[in-house]
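Lab manual, section 2.4: Encoding a predicted structure.

Procedure: take the sequence of the chain (382 residues), apply the prediction step described in section 2.3, and record the output as structure tokens. A sample record is shown.
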Amino acid sequence: MIGFELSEEQREWRDNAKNFAEKEIAPLSWKIDKGLTERFHWSLIEKMGSLGFMGLGIPKKYGGSELDTLTTAIVIEELAVGDAGIAFTCTLNSTNPVMIAGSEKQKDKFLPAVYDKKKPQLSAFALTEPNAGSDAAGLSTLARKEGSEYVLNGEKCFISNGDMAGLYTIMATVDKKKGFGGITAFVVPGNAEGLIRGKIEDKMGFRSSHTGVLAMHDVRVPEENVLGKKGEGFLIAMKLLEVARVISCGAVALGLARRSFETTLKFLKDFADPKSLIGQQAVSFDLADMMASIEASRLLVWKSCWMIDNGIPVGTMSGLTKVYTSDMALEVSQQGMGLVGLHAYSKDYPLEKQVRDAKTLQIYEGTNQINRMVAARGILEG
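Recorded output:
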């Protein structure tokens, strides 16, 4: 028998996240989007760190909250109702590559500083390059072995937290001729000499999440900072993305879509008697479709989380979850914008912001086109 009753602990985490999103995140969301606040909302990040939101899936011994994937998704959904970009920033710390492939020595060395509840840091995963996005095998950042060190040279782009992370996982190739087989993962502290943080992208959406350029000029990395084994970087990246597509995309999409639905419903109730709207099919049918899409998407997210928590291969399902939920979030926010009309451009009913944020979901962690290919491969070869 499958049940959907949350445990007492899950309800507590959900309610805490919901209250925090309503009181702390939502009031800042529009201001951050319009550039009316400080350059980056560190004070908000510190509050989230003190409540355990910045290390949801990380073991307690490293400073995290040690939540399973399903509970993490429940928390992220609530935070994303407040602001999708801020919730996404949370997820980057919850799916740290060091936790996926790091040795105990590496975890002890790097994680406690990142998950300090009083002064949390951000982590970043650097894979994408100007000429190597979806085709990771074409990355050109080189890792040259010199004695007991590797020397990294290259450039990364569209790196979330790229301008401010305290800890980076950088993908570089030790032998470009080997393609995927040459890609290796390196843990690099944010203060490493030769690590240059470049411009911050002026994005269409997700403006509360910083995305930047990262360059490596003779960055020296000790051999013990290699994650996993030499040449295993691509496999590590894929394991990370399987989780990220469910949490960073799926759970965030749920929260964003809910925010769009709730904003639309508030507008309609503010301007009309709810009973009078039931007979207006153009309105009531859209509301029913929006709610159905959100509920169906949550089932996909929760099933994928259950698979991850039970060690069941999730590659195909995570791709399907990412595609469906991101498409759903954009469709729901656009439906809401159609019902709210010109009011959607105001700060009282900011559907235009939610549409812009939702579009981002279709692009990051592998475009939806790439994820359809990933899912199709699993379907046809499975």
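Check your result against the sample. The chain is about 50% helix and 15% strand.
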